[in-house]
Amino acid sequence: MPESDWSPPIASLLPEAVKLISQDLNYLDKEFKFVETVPNLNADETKALKELMMNNNIVIKPDKGSSISQEVLFAPKIHKEPEKWSKPHEIHPGRPIVSNCGSETYYTAEFIDHHLHPLSIRHQSYIKDTYDFIKGTAMGKKFTPAYANIFMAKWEAGALS
Hints:
The protein is mainly alpha-helical. It is 42% helix and 7% strand. It has a domain at 126-161.
């Protein structure tokens, strides 16, 4: 199917939408320089590639990308009774620790983190490090309400069971 070049008439759009779209287009024009690319195939190679693409007898399934995590480790749940282990007294249950360093999604996560970090550190309940966490649990500190909720939920579960 050919690519569509239809756009809604500007008169049918809300003025706010037109303003936002114009701002976005100006930003893109200013921030991103579009460079014409030079083909890396010569004329014969391009022709051969087009012929292969038009040949319906050749079926090449797309590589969807597996997104298989690079490494999975398990932190043992040592507080569990040995009778309740996956294999009693032999294999303890574990909490999975997944390392995605170098995986297909790693750089996407890095990109998202880069853009969200400046926003997240502004939040009143942001915890910078372990020291900040410990300092924040004292009464009257920024983390106290969340800490109190966790404590009360645990207390209720124990008291009501």
